[in-house]
Amino acid sequence: MADEIELKTAPADFRFPTTNQTRHCFTRYVEFHRCVTAKGDEAADCDKFAKYYRALCPGEWVERWNEQRENGTFPGPL
């Protein structure tokens, strides 16, 4: 029998009390990339932020933001 995978979403965050999670998604994406910049690509501390933004953000947004970061046009504070 195959190992079971436990799926979880990001925990509730008091900064984002409404059902619209757009800002929550964006903030978690920025927090992940700030963490990677500060601690390096292999830092286990950053894994939780990656899980959070991947659970909250549509894939199309992440792809666009990744392209913007590569081009130096990302609108957020990294």
UniProtKB/TrEMBL annotation:
Q: PROSITE patterns of this UniProt entry?
A: CHCH
GO CC term (a single one): mitochondrion
Protein localization: Mitochondrion
Under SUPFAM superfamilies, the record lists: Cytochrome c oxidase subunit h
Task: Name the InterPro entries for this protein.
Answer: COX6B-like, CX6/COA6-like_sf, Cyt_c_oxidase_su6B
Q: Which domain of life is it from?
A: Eukaryota
Going by the UniProt record, its keywords in alphabetical order are: Disulfide bond, Mitochondrion
One Pfam entry name: COX6B
- List cystine links: 25-57, 35-46
- Its family? Belongs to the cytochrome c oxidase subunit 6B (TC 3.D.4.8) family.
- Role noted for this protein: Component of the cytochrome c oxidase, the last enzyme in the mitochondrial electron transport chain which drives oxidative phosphorylation.
Q: What is this protein called?
A: Cytochrome c oxidase subunit
